[in-house]
C-alpha cells in the first residue's frame, strides 16, 4: 500500500505540540471557499496515470526513512492535507510502524473529520493515533455546505466520538468576515465543546488571503478587535483555552 503525498516538511512548530515532521497528503473531499492549499484538493489513486511530478506516491518505508533523518530532533509527526483521513488505511499502517520504531514519537492527525470515524473498521486507526486536530468550519449545516460544499453531520458526530475518547488536541474554526454569521457559529461551536470539555483548546483562526483562489473568494482579514469579540463569546460559554491565530 502507498500514500499519495503532496509534500513533507521536516520541521514544523505550528502543527501540534513541539517540533514535528508534517506530511501533507494529496486529495480532499471538500472544496472550501478559503482553501489555502487548493493544489492539494485533486484526488489521485496510487495507479493514476495523470499524477503531477511534484506529487509523490510513497511507500511506508520511504516515509520512515524521512522520519529517521530527523527523529532525534522532533517530538512527533502530524499528518495533514488535503484531507489525510481519506488515506486512513495507509495512516494506520504508517502509525503502527512509527510506534514500533520510535515509541516516544506522537502521531497527530489534522483533519476536516468528514468521513465517519466511528465504524468498527477504523478502530485500529483511532486507537493508534494520539490526537486529532479537528476543523469545525461551521455549525449550521447550510453554512457548512456554503463554506465547504458538504454537510457537517459527520464532523459533529466525529467530534462527539473523539472527545469522549480523549483523542482531540484542538478544535479550529477559520473566521471569514461577511460570509456566514461568525458570532452565531462561534457561539454554537463553543457551546458544543463546553458540553464535553471546557478546557479543550479552541483555535479561532483569522482568514488570510495567502494562497486562496481569488476567483472563488474575495474577502478580507478580520480585525483583532473582531476576533477578540468572538473569543469573548466562546469564553462566556465556559471555554478556558480560546486562542486567536
Ligand atoms: S478541507 Fe482543507 S484542504 Fe480541503 S478544501 Fe478545505 S481548506 Fe482545502
Structure, explained:
It is a single chain. The protein contains 7 helices and 9 strands; from the N terminus they run βββαβαβαβααβαβαβ. The protein is an alpha/beta fold. It is globular and about 45 Å long. Iron/sulfur cluster (SF4) binds at residues 28, 30-32, 35, 37, 40-41, 81-83, 112.
Write the layout of secondary structure elements.
Elements (H helix, E strand, L loop, with lengths): L1 E11 L7 E6 L30 E4 H11 L5 E5 L7 H14 L4 E6 L11 H6 L2 E5 L5 H8 L4 H12 L3 E8 L6 H15 L4 E6 L17 H13 L5 E3 L1
Parallel strand pairs: 2-4, 4-5, 5-6, 6-7, 7-8, 8-9
Antiparallel strand pairs: 1-2, 1-3
The site of iron/sulfur cluster (SF4) has 12 residues, from loops.
Characteristics:
single chain, 245 residues, alpha/beta, nine-stranded mixed sheet, 7 helices, 9 strands, 32% helix, globular, binds iron/sulfur cluster
